[in-house]
Amino acid sequence: MQIRCPKCRASGFVQSHIGVIGLGSMGFGMAISALRAGHRIWGQDINHTAMERLQQEGGTAGISIEAAAALDAVVIVVLNAAQMENVLFGPEAIVPRLRRGAVVLGCVTVAPAFAQAMETRCAEHDVLYLDAPISGGSLKAANGCLTIMASGKDAAFAAARPVLDALAETVFELGASAGSASAMKATNQLLAGVHIAVMAEALTFAATQGIDAATFLSVIQKCAGTSWMLENRAPHIVSGDYTPHSAIDIWPKDLGIVREIAGSAGFEVQITTAALRQFADASAMGLGREDDAAVVKVYARQAGVVLPGVEGERM
Questions:
Q1: Among 68, 259, 61, 37, which Cα is nearest to 143's?
Q2: pLDDT tens-digit map of 296-307
Q3: Is it the case that residue 17 has pLDDT exceeding 90?
Q4: pLDDT tens sequence across 243-286
Q5: Buried b vs exposed e over 237-256: b needs ≥16 C-beta within 10 Å?
């Protein structure tokens, strides 16, 4: 079921108290979108600069014990399942500090079984859990225009609705328990990761034929071979700017999750495995914190071609 979320406040708007844990490029933008929608925001991150930026925008840096007890919702936007489990149930666990009926929105890409386990463990504390992975990138996060794939109990959806309205342009309701949304997000990540890798392969192939990156982009984006990922990431290569919007190191994790899920279903994801290998090689080259378009450097090194950039370095 698809829901279009309004970008204006309804007449019955009620301000919510929302914690955002993980203020990277996605989490920070989401926090700002929720602030803009009129909610009170507390942000937590190991990067104190990110918390200071949030405070300058009108949010509160850090989530004290007292603040946690007053939160209506907590949005988790950390890197992986291990970090998420630590945030929720580790030494400084947020879940036991939340009031009964508060909702946790798990926005991290995780395996469906992990999302189901988080829902069960939250319920032991009378806390609701919404499996709510996100898609759209940092710009859409900052503009409240994400796509959110969500699954969970009706009560979790009801408690999370003010947050969903503030953060998303589109919400897909995908089931009455956690796990379904994470399965759908893994499907999306399969396609997205493969599209980025094959874009880099195609751009490098074109370079071996004397076609420069700018020409490649201008032609292919008007042809049947284009994709959203190609049109979004290839400009980073053309400009030689690998400032991370979505980093290389995300993909060994996410495509690894896809392969894990597929393996449990007895299905071999051969193209996904090939793409995963390229991202793993990029990470091994020391490119893990660069934009994921930097996977092109693996292909360029293999082909001996020069990528656009100030240095004009041969990879």
A1: 37
A2: 999 999 999 999
A3: yes
A4: 998 899 999 999 999 999 999 999 999 999 999 999 999 999 99
A5: bbeeebebbbbbbbbbbbbb
7, 140, 153, 185: the active-site residue? 185
**Per-residue pLDDT at 9 exceeds 70:** no
Instruction: Check if 222 is active-site.
Output: no
pTM (whole model) above 0.85: yes
- Side-chain half-sphere of 6: how many Cα atoms within 13 Å? 6
- The string of DSSP letters for 156-200 reads HHHHHHHHHHHHEEEEEE--SSTTHHHHHHHHHHHHHHHHHHHHH
- The runs of H, that is alpha helices, within 209-227 are 213-220
Enumerate the β-bridge partners of residue 44: 21
Contacts 24+ apart (CB under 8 A), 275-283: 275/193, 275/194, 275/196, 275/197, 275/198, 275/251, 276/193, 276/251, 276/252, 278/197, 278/200, 278/201, 279/193, 279/197, 279/248, 279/251, 279/252, 279/255, 280/252, 282/248, 283/248, 283/249, 283/252
> How is 85-135 classified by DSSP, letter by letter?
HHHHHSTT-SGGGSPTT-EEEE-S---HHHHHHHHHHHHTTT-EEEE--EE
Q: What phi and psi values does residue 103 have, to the nearest 5 degrees?
A: -125, 140
H or E segment at 81?
helix 81-89
